[in-house]
Amino acid sequence: MKGYTDLHLHIIPGIDGDGPADLESSLQMARGLVEQGFRRVVATPHCFEGNPSVTEILERWRQLDGELKRREIPLQVLPGAELLIEPRLPERARQGQVLPLNRGRYLLLELPLFQEVPPYLEELLFELKACGYAPILAHPERVKTFQRDLSLLSRLVSGGLYTQLTISSLTGLQGSTVQRTAGRMLDRRLVHLLGTDAHSGGGRLLETGPALKLLTKKIGAAGVEAMLKTRPEQLLHGQELEIPTVLTEKSRWQLLKKKLFSNRRQGMSHGRGTRFT
Ligand SMILES: [Fe+2]
């Protein structure tokens, strides 16, 4: 399965201090993305308090897009931004000072990393939704509050927040706490989308293959396809994302017990009755 869409990466050169420093490095990164199986990406430079502006991002994106076409690199790059959550974000969104993914209605948000969730988060998400935006939270597995306890994230997701896991979190590249939290999020069906959050052609991007192997083992090929192809497609067409219902800790155990019981019954009917006892 190839032909993925990456909804989170830093590929525009020299714009946010996180992505490639120059155009040649951006193009090298684009070639690396194609090698990893991506055919479309949304460039999401960091954006804080309106900087860089929507106009600046679009201008720099157009330059990169032109170069990719000129050099015939088979990667479609669409414009977007990764918005750091701050109290005035809803106001900026109302004034059109934020850039949604591919200029649609989905906003990629990030919380300050390795910190507690700010107390105004729920109200901020409510306000963004009231303005017609659909918020997606990038890498919740790196947020301290969620690493300790997933109940707030479960509540936010049940209330309409979408989430995006960083692919390399699955292999432990971001540390064991992040990896453990990513696993728990998957168990509770709290992951809807994936992103490389790549900053270059190396590092995180090169983890894609091994991480997707692990993920396929955990949730199956159809689950991976939903996160890397089907839902990104829905998102880029402005449709609602089809997502599963969140599992509470109790319902997760009930489901596991049910699975175990049905496996055991199947085993018994095949003369392997003691396998799971
Ligand atoms: Fe990012």
Question: What is the strand and helix layout of this fold?
Answer:
Elements: E1 4-9, H1 23-35, E2 38-43, E3 46-47, H2 54-70, E4 76-79, E5 82-84, H3 89-94, E6 106-110, H4 121-130, E7 134-138, H5 144-148, H6 151-158, E8 162-166, H7 176-187, E9 193-195, H8 208-219, H9 221-236, H10 249-269
Parallel strand pairs: 1-2, 2-4, 3-5, 5-6, 6-7, 7-8, 8-9
Helix pairs in contact: 8-9
This protein binds fe (ii) ion.
Beta-strand residue percentage: 5-15%
CATH H level of the largest domain: which superfamily? Metal-dependent hydrolases
First and last CA, distance: 37 Å
| Average pLDDT number | 92
- Given the structure, what is the number of helices? 10
State the share of residues found in helices, binned by percent: 40-55%
Q: What is the CATH class designation of the largest domain?
A: Alpha Beta
What does the radius of gyration come to? 20 Å
Shape: globular
| Class derived from helix and strand content | alpha/beta
The name CATH uses for the topology of the largest domain is TIM Barrel
What pattern of helices and strands is seen along the backbone?
Answer: EHEEHEEHEHEHHEHEHHH
E-strand count? 9
Residue windows where pLDDT falls under 50 for at least 5 positions: 271-277
Number of domains: 2
What characterizes the major β-sheet? Answer: 6 strands, parallel
List the strand order in the largest sheet: 3-5-6-7-8-9
Bound molecules: fe (ii) ion
**Second-tier CATH architecture of the largest domain:** Alpha-Beta Barrel
